[in-house]
Design goal:
By secondary structure, the chain is mainly alpha-helical. The chain has helices spanning 2-26, 32-53, 61-89, 94-101, 105-117, 126-145, 153-157, 160-174, 180-190, 193-206, 210-215, 217-239, 246-256, 263-270, 275-303. Helix 4 packs parallel to helix 12 and helix 5 runs antiparallel to helix 13 (246-256).
Length: 304
Amino acid sequence: MEIVKILLVQVLIMYILMFIGYMAYKKKMLSDQGTKDIGKILLNIAIPIVVISNFCVEKTPEKTAELFSSLLISLVCMLLSIVVAFLFFHKKDRIGEFATAFSNAGFIGIPLVQATFGEHAVFYISMMIVLINLLQWSYGVYTITDDKSYINLKVVAKNPIVISVMIGLLVYFSGISMPTIVTKLFTIIGNLNTPLAMLVSGVYLAQSDLLNMIRKKSIYYVCLARLIIVPLVIMCVFKFLPLGNTTIKMAILLAAACPCGSNVAIFAQQFNKDYKKGVEYVCISTLLSIVTLPLVILLASIIL
């Protein structure tokens, strides 16, 4: 029951922030251009800082081994998510494919993993969050735009997420100890990620037809794939995967079972696609995850 309480609090916070964004747009305090600019700040500043801060931990042989284990397990996890998304939605619904492939492992995943498995378990999903952001900027952008030019290695190398990963790995393996002022600055900037993302989502919501959204069957197909099919497939593979320990697998599974990440709407708007559809997937999947997440973890505790 504790995980349900934690999730309810996180969802409540998310919807309050979205409501603030909703009202700000309705009251003309936020414009379409302003929303797009906030999206750029998120993608180019806030998220990279979050990625780097995940690597600002003390280097030990145990942590390094856990880092590589979590990286390999996360790679398997993301591959399975992408395969499921491809099989269900490729060519049929590109926004739905993106939404199914990438979970909200940051805002909902981190606090849930932290509360369920302890502070140390957040380190286990750091590589998954890195992979999600890296893949969103490459495979994810291609999925939304259907433009192969975005897979160009030079373009990916200049990607702010890729750069932040390189910086993060350098910080960790060099054993550099960040000054207090830097860690505090990272914390402050990183904390912008959730509220800004939810404010933008609230603006998207204000531009959507809520009643029509609830009636759309296509939304529930995406939610079924993201919240149930993806976690079940990952769970079955994890059962026979000879990597890591149960806690690492459970933490990564919990992050992978989270609802659609809010970046699906932000990316869609940045590339002039149907971002309102992305908002619909985020809203409904987040609401339904209140039921599905505890069930997934309960089942995983029996199987893994």
